[in-house]
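Q: I have 146 residues here and want to know how they pack in 3D. Can you give me a structure?
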Amino acid sequence: MSEPIDEGRTASDAEELREQVERTRHELGRTVEALADKADVKARGRAKAAEVKDRAAHTAGEWRHKAAEGAARLRDGLPGTVTEKASRATGQARATAAKAGHVWDEKAPDPVRAKAAQATRVAWRYPALLAAAAAAAVWLVRRRRR
């Protein structure tokens, strides 16, 4: 099976054998680690999920950048008067909304404000419900005008 040990071997032969055994042990250790890594399905799944997440974040960043570039090109292509008018209209809308908020705070009774606050919380929590209510309100208004 195996060759008998030669009593006549020199010390250098023994040292070579020890080095060969160490190399073999080291290679075997790396092989076992590689097999263990392949067998660890959870770790591989986490690594793949992290890779997909990073790729998605990178793609989303690229899309955001392209959208910002497109918006800038569109803004740059508009005549100055359109941009100015839009800016003025935005400012006026904000000012009017702030003024309405102040009037509401001053004149609305406490129970009405409490109900409105509750409705606002519900609307933020359930936007589909808000959309349905708005659609129903629009339908009712149009129906009454006819």
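Q: Anything worth noting?
A: The first helix runs from residue 11 to 39. The mean pLDDT is 85.
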